[in-house]
Amino acid sequence: MCGIFAYLNFDVRRERRYILELLFNGLRRLEYRGYDSAGISIDSSFSLDCDAVPPPLVFRQEGNIESLVKSVYQDVSLTGLNLEESFSIHAGIAHTRWATHGEPAPRNSHPQSSDPGNEFLVVHNGVITNYMVLKETLVRQGFSFESETDTEVIPKLAKFIFDNTKEEGDKSVTFSQIVLEVMRHLEGAYALIFKSRHYPNELIACKRGSPLLLGVKELSEEASIGASFDDTKFLSSNGQPKELFLSSDPSALVEHTKKVLVIEDGEVVHLKDGRASIFKFDRAKGEHAGALARPDSVQRALSVLEMEVEQINKGKYEHYMQKEIHEQPESLTTTMRGRLIRGGSCKSKSVLLGGIKDHLKTIRRSRRIVFIGCGTSYNAALAARPILEELSGIPVSVEIASDLLDRQGPIYREDTAIFVSQSGETADTLQALEYALENGALCVGITNTVGSAIARHTHCGVHINAGCEIGVASTKAYTSQIVVMAMLALAIGDDTLSSQARREAIIDGLFDLPSKVKDVLKLDQEMKNLAQLLIAEQSLLVFGRGYNYATALEGALKVKEVALMHSEGILAGEMKHGPLALVDETLPIVVVATRDACFSKQQSVIQQLHARKGRLIVMCTKGDASSVCVGGSCRVIEVPQVEDCLQPVINIVPLQLLAYHLTVLRGYNVDQPRNLAKSVTTQ
Predict the structure, then answer these.
(1) pLDDT grade, residue 180 (50/70/90)?
(2) Spatial contact of 252 and 13, defined as CB atoms under 8 Å apart
(3) Helix, strand, coil % (nearest 5) of the chain?
(4) In angstroms, rounded to a whole number, what is the distance separating the alpha carbons of residues 124 and 98?
(5) Which residues are catalytically annotated?
(6) At how many degrees (to 10) do helices 153-167 and 175-185 cross?
(7) Strands in 51-98 per DSSP E
(8) For residue 260, what are the β-bridge partners?
(9) pLDDT in tens, 324-344
(10) Cβ contact 256:245 at 8 Å
(11) Is the dihedral of CA 374, 375, 380, 382 positive or negative?
(12) DSSP string spanning 88-114?
């Protein structure tokens, strides 16, 4: 959703033009998260005949980042702002907004301000749930509001607290004390960065629920990656020039530095004089009357980003989604690397998942296993449910996170709850995780993001290692999630002798899977030709059952996400209970009918749809075209055969390609579809 980026240079001279371009580029790296407006704030020029710190400059614009860039340079030209002016220390903030409160418009864009003099500025990712109460209180105190956002209460609350401390004669109040007092009044999820003319060249970052990282680049040969944040090392400015970055996503940091701190919930990071001071928010500590509480500092260690700049570039491809579809043979190989054990002549084949091996006995004793996810992650869990039930013998249910929360579905201490999320920051899934932890369940995380909230807060888990996924419509993460959950099923069922042959067949299938995906990617041109036939259609149905009910749901989701065509994934067994009424000679229908236990039933479905003159597109196993195509009247997509539980990985690829080509041919934005965001960090 919203993207946050900030840059502070210390003891290294940077021109205003350089700072602007660095902020713009940071926002470009966050575009994939989804947004409808953008804004930045930088320092204005100091006047020689005035000691007061001038108000920061704020630029906000509806539309894409290039609209913001154009607007900024137009304003610069009109005002004569000197872009060549250099600063040895400067703090700039930037933001991409995905509208939740108020329409996309400059007044609702961030940074949001406390007053016309921009005494306090804030960029925000998340939702403040009690903003109306705070707004009413501030209006009674004489504040006026310009926007419809929930964010505007934050800088105004900061100004209110600051003004009150000055009236009480406390001139020593620090920026971090102001922010900690603001946090005490906020409810909801947020990641915030504060900038203030009262605290020039300082930034404050804090978070609760939404992701935020600090990147550190020390411009000296002596800088070491293993530095800790303590009084003798990083916290002291040590006279070394530094560049400090704040971002809601590592993709905006990796080209500058790999040394990062993942800011934890309730932490406040104060950047000042080349130092990063870290404080822990304690709501109870600030509730006493009198002066603002002085927080206790904490020590944290830097970690190293496991990401390369090449991963966030398109390379030879036109779009990220196209690149990520074609990366799947490599991403699946990476997902399985070091986890599949062939075994020798006397040893059976097995799976090693280091992140859960210490909890396998507990999982095997579970009363039930509950998968919890949203969107594509939910579909991946649905695809993996049958094999987990088969190999574990444990009842398995799949829950949409928001629905579980809405009805407060029962979660027991004897349950294993598995949370599936590409980003590891999905708001509904995180709330469901809190709910499951409160109820005492063993919580397992399956994410693509090391250090994400789900990875940190679950008891154990498995990283899918699919690599950075930029396109909003998930592709390679989906197939890697299915593979990880299949390996999870193999690990859980590893103590059952009766299923050994079945497990070994699946492991052999996993080894062959990347090459099979490479084969199915050769259907690219065929899917483009099919997309040309469907370009003017308004609707598409996709029928699947068994392992491939999830394929139907995910294929339909991809089409509606990016091609903006109504599409519906339908359980084929439910065809006669309503969907059959839609069938005529004009409506395109995809039927997934590859070889598995449900094949004969899908043949019957095809016969019934054909009898009603359905316009059929059938996906079948290579060599089965004559078995599924009644009288040669349907279009056939032939795919390689693999183990039934792995077939959804193969079958989704042609539908991903179809969705991609439909989108391009219809002239829509593939990587940033309308109204959607990559990481859904608000509810």
Answers:
(1) very high
(2) no
(3) 40, 25, 35
(4) 11
(5) 2
(6) 120
(7) 57-62, 86-97
(8) 215, 303
(9) 999 999 999 999 999 998 766
(10) yes
(11) positive
(12) EEEEEEEEEE--SSS-SSGGGSSSEES
- Indicate where the chain has its CATH 3.60.20.10 domain(s): 3-220+233-310
| Distance between CA atoms of residues 111 and 127, nearest Å | 15
Closest CA to 466 of 449, 488, 487: 449
Question: Are 442 and 357 within 8 A, CB to CB?
Answer: no
Terminal CA-to-CA distance of the chain, rounded, Å?
Answer: 11
Which residue matches tokens 């052999």? 508
Q: Give residue for tokens 């062939």.
A: 342
Contact partners, residue 353, CB within 8 Å, separation at least 6: 339, 462, 487, 488, 491
Q: What is the mean pLDDT of the chain?
A: 89
Q: CA-CA distances (angstroms) from residue 607 to 540, 575, 612, 614?
A: 19, 12, 9, 10
Task: State pLDDT tens for residues 451-484.
Answer: 788 998 999 999 999 988 888 899 999 999 999 9
User: What Å distances lie between residue 215 and 9, 110, 149, 205, 243, CA to CA?
Assistant: 12, 22, 28, 12, 8
Answer CATH for 315-495 from 3.90.1680.10, 3.30.1140.32, 1.10.287.130, 3.40.50.10490 = 3.40.50.10490
pLDDT digits (tens, 9 = 90+) for 267-294: 999 999 988 999 988 776 655 545 566 6
CA pair distance 575, 592, nearest whole angstrom? 14
**Which residue bears the tokens 């590409």?**
422
Considering only the C-alpha atoms of the chain, give the largest distance between any 2 of them, rounded to a whole number of Å. Answer: 90
3-class SS letters over 418-443: EEEECCCCCHHHHHHHHHHHHCCCEE
Question: Of residues 52 and 94, which shows the higher confidence score?
Answer: 94
Distance CA 203, CA 270 (A): 6
| Residue 201: both structure tokens together | 């060249």
CATH of domain 521-672: 3.40.50.10490
Contact 228, 242 (CB under 8 A): no
Which pLDDT does position 231 carry in this prediction? 36
Angle between helices 647-665 and 524-534 (to 10 degrees): 50
**What CA dihedral angle connects 618, 621, 627 and 628, to 10 degrees?**
-10
Beta carbons of 152 and 132 less than 8 angstroms apart = no
Looking at residue 305, its pLDDT comes to: 76
Domain 3-220+233-310, CATH 3.60.20.10 — does that match?
Answer: yes
Distances from the Cα of 340 to the Cαs of 18, 351, 352, 418, in angstroms?
48, 5, 6, 21
Location of each CATH 3.40.50.10490 domain in the chain: 315-495, 521-672
